[in-house]
Design brief:
mainly alpha, 5-stranded antiparallel beta sheet
Length: about 775
């Protein structure tokens, strides 16, 4: 747009106002008025909530000493509140006055060290580290949250200050300077550090959280005055997104604000920055040799990394069965990349730099720790660890080109690495016999090494390809997994029906001694009929009740008949027994001839019961037995059901030990097993050191057994909770982490740096 054609009341970037001029001074005074009014309101509101917060904590304190700390803090805050408020507002006022008069201090006008935050932690005493962490976390979180509005305020203030560069760290109403002003005012408060940390949280909640209103009012006021009324909230990077332009943006040019996707991610990043800052503050933590020479620019770093990347691309990706020496080579490359980079920089500029810019050194160390974690992460198979570790150079380039990589959970490079790790977690030689998953991961690694220059869109493209591969495999695996689950569910229903049938028959037999013929019918043919009735009609159906009434009648028909009334009762039972047997045996696929032969045997038995036929004597019984028809054949269709009652009742799968007899280590693992959810991956290893990775696919609502399948959806194993806990206690199975690789790595790095800091403090 041609400035000459713009309305006279519009101010654009080419139009620089003199802050000492009437117009510039008036606008800055308006900003000061807005900030003073709103901050006075915010800080007052904060102190109104301090008493309640400390009183609640005192009530919940774990002991009297802690309770007294909070009560003492309440009294001290009430006494010192006016002084703290005045001190805070006075410091903010001084910053605004200096800003309006153009007398900003050198420390403020310079660019803040990104990884150190806005507070120079090297000057902070060790006992103040916790306070520094709270402050820097607060600053980083709010700079991220308020990025859009704060960016607009910075740009408009820059215009009315004659083009002077205004950044988050130098904005007098930015989170950094406001937090520093409050920290200084808190020196007026003599209270336990726990009390101070509570007040900092309240400052974050009631002052920092309200800054969006201040910025929006400021932007609206300046827009009404014609200062950048059409300002976009994002600025296209210089150089069209090339390595040169992006590196320049990272080195300090105006860049698009970081828009993080969660407070937790921002807080974690700020903690990392703080720990790196504290790490540099101690002389015993090794840094680059401090020789003379200009610091390498981001562009030089990217150039040197590109050379190293091209060299790494010529090294073939490891085969499935990696040797120890090859794995060690990759590990050494990860650990020595920093020195290799310095050497390559020396080759490119003719002189090895002795020092790297703080921001770049921290980025190099952070990426190095990320890939060290990958090589140590037992959630990844060793073969995949080695493969993914080769991505260290591309990811270091990406982190230097785009500083937002570690701040954004949804950053394309981060999503790709998390996606590769998630796919790799399920890999095993058994489940990937065709090598499709291995080859897909290998291809992505090779393409990044060979093709990634400075175009960050490659991460989006490769992630889309990985997703497409995963989706096609997921559909096939889900079908196989569904078949396995249905088959398992069917077997369990069958076993449950068998056990129900066995219990019903055995409970009714009780202490009765049944004739072999009747016992055989109940324990084999009729037991199968009960099972099929339960499966087809349900275990509360009228058909099942009718089938159980037959069992009662059949057992009653074997009682001794000694009176005319007993004979009459037996004769009344027999027609119903015959009808039920015909119907039931036909349902379990008995042939008509076999049914007639069985009924003939029963007729003979009942005639003997009624005294209508002679009972064979002891001498006659063997001969009669020889003439007895052979046992009825069981149809093939129900052969799996024809097992003895004793086998059903003594099923070892049903035996779970009493809680009192469970070993302590197994009891501990039982707690972990009870928390498992479908979708959780475990690694199983057999006695011959064969490893298999399997996903918990299904927990049976009937038996409580856990079904595991591999990445192709094929069954690997199924366990009862006790069996699985025992296997885990013996070290033959372990649960794999379900959270993303990047998140696990960041937590591990924070833990590592925190322990380094603690060890350093202990030795001082």
């Amino acid at each position: 747009m041609n400035p000459a054609n713009e309305p006279s009341n519009i101010v654009n970037l080419s139009q620089r106002l003199d802050p000492s001029s009437g117009r510039g001074g008036d606008l800055l005074n308006a900003v000061r008025s807005i900030a003073t009014r709103r901050l006075q309101q915010y800080i007052g509101n904060m102190f109104e909530h301090v008493d309640d917060a400390l009183f609640d904590l005192a009530e919940k304190a774990e002991n009297n000493a802690a309770q007294m700390h909070y009560f003492d803090g309440m009294r001290e805050v009430r006494k010192r509140r006016p002084v703290i408020e005045r001190s805070f507002l006075a410091q903010v006022s001084r910053e605004l006055n200096d800003f309006v008069s153009g007398q900003r201090s050198t420390s403020q006008s310079g660019t803040a060290t990104p990884l150190a935050g806005s507070i120079e932690l090297s000057l902070v005493a060790d006992n103040e580290l916790e306070e520094s962490l709270a402050i820097t976390s607060m600053i980083g979180k709010n700079e991220t949250r308020l990025a859009r509005d704060l960016f607009a305020v910075n740009q408009r203030l820059s215009v009315i200050c004659g083009g002077a560069k205004i950044e988050d760290a130098t904005n007098p109403v930015g989170p950094a300077l406001l937090a520093q002003a409050f920290r200084l005012s808190m020196r007026e408060l003599s209270a336990d550090m726990r009390v101070k940390l509570i007040i900092y949280k309240l400052f974050d909640r009631y002052v920092m959280a309200s800054l969006d209103e201040l910025y929006q009012e400021t932007n609206a006021e300046l827009m009404r005055a014609g200062v950048l009324p059409q300002l976009r909230h994002e600025v296209v990077r210089p150089g069209g997104g090339t390595a040169t332009g992006t590196a320049a943006a990272a080195a300090g040019d105006v860049a698009a604000p970081v828009a993080d996707d969660s407070e937790a991610s921002a807080e974690l990043l700020q903690t990392l920055r703080t720990l790196f800052g504290a790490r540099r503050a101690h002389p015993d933590v090794p840094l680059s040799a401090l020789t003379q020479g200009p610091l390498p620019t981001a562009n030089e770093l990217i150039g040197a990394l590109s050379v190293l990347q091209s060299q790494a691309a010529t090294v073939p990706v490891m085969p499935l069965s990696t040797g120890g020496a090859s794995a060690m080579d990759i590990t050494q490359q990860v650990l020595q990349l920093k020195e290799q980079l310095l050497s390559q920089l020396g080759s490119l500029r003719g002189q090895k730099p002795g020092q790297i810019a703080t921001m770049d050194e921290d980025t190099i160390d952070l990426v190095g720790m990320l890939f060290e974690f990958i090589l140590e992460d037992r959630n990844l198979p060793p073969q995949m660890q080695v493969m993914l570790a080769r991505l260290q150079i591309p990811y270091l380039k990406a982190a230097i080109i785009d500083r937002k990589l570690f701040a954004h959970r949804q950053h394309p490079a981060r999503r790709l690495l998390d996606g590769l790790a998630e796919a790799a977690k399920s890999w095993s030689e058994e489940s990937d016999r065709d090598g499709r998953l291995h080859d897909t991961v290998k291809a992505i690694v090779e393409r990044l090494l060979q093709e990634f220059d400075d175009d960050m869109t490659i991460f989006d493209r490769l992630f889309a390809e990985l997703q497409q591969f995963q989706e096609s495999n997921r559909r096939r695996a889900e079908l196989a997994e569904q078949r396995v689950a249905e088959s398992t569910r069917g077997r369990e229903k069958l076993e449950q029906a068998r056990r129900r049938a066995a219990r019903e028959i055995l409970n009714r037999i009780g202490d009765h001694v049944l004739p072999p013929l009747v016992h055989g019918v109940l324990s084999r043919a009729w037991a199968n009929y009960l099972v099929l009735t339960i499966l087809r009609k349900g275990d509360e159906s009228p058909e099942l009740r009718e089938a159980l009434r037959f069992v009662d009648a059949f057992i009653a028909s074997t009682k001794p008949v000694r009176t005319p009334e007993a004979k009459r009762d037996l004769r009344q039972l027999l027609p119903g027994i015959e009808r039920a047997l015909r119907k039931g045996l036909a349902n379990v696929a008995f042939q008509d001839a076999d049914i007639e032969r069985l009924l003939g045997q029963l007729h003979t038995y009942y005639r003997q019961q009624l005294g209508e036929a002679a009972i064979p004597t002891t001498e006659q019984q063997p001969q009669a037995a020889e003439g007895t028809p052979a046992p009825l054949p069981i149809p093939e269709s129900i052969q799996p059901l024809a097992e003895s009652m004793a086998d059903l009742e003594d099923d070892p799968a049903l035996a779970e030990p009493d809680a009192a007899t469970v070993a302590p280590e197994v009891r501990e693992e039982l707690e972990h097993v009870s928390e498992l959810k479908p979708g959780t991956w475990l690694e199983f290893n057999s006695t011959d050191d064969h490893f298999e990775r399997a996903k918990l696919s299904w927990i049976s609502p009937m038996s409580g057994r856990y079904l595991f399948v591999n990445r192709r959806g094929l069954k690997v194993a199924d366990y009862s909770p006790y069996e699985l806990a025992t296997v885990m206690a013996e070290g033959r199975a372990r649960i794999l982490a379900s959270n993303a690789l990047f998140d696990r790595a960041m937590d591990a790095i924070v833990d590592r740096l925190s322990h380094e800091e603690a060890r350093t403090n202990d030795t001082e």
